[in-house]
Design a protein that fits this description.
3-stranded antiparallel beta sheet; alpha+beta; about 80 residues; binds zinc ion
Amino acid sequence: MKKKKCDHRIWVKPEQKLEINYWSGEEEYVWEEGYWVSAEEDIDTHRLKCTLCGEIGYYSGAAKDHFEGRNVQSWIDETNKKR
Ligand SMILES: [Zn+2]
């Protein structure tokens, strides 16, 4: 079986909520809509990581090159130290 590709987001399930119907004055349960939230969180100023699959993303091409060791930029380490 082929592994499903992670799309780096989490489905927040819809919830039932008690509300008052302003027309009839009665209480009724309504379903709130579900929604997607990003599963990514910042590792530092230039990178983010998916909490589901662990994949690392970069905020810029320069940051990607830096962390993958292709083109090291000293300013990237400097801005991370300041955090
Ligand atoms: Zn992911």
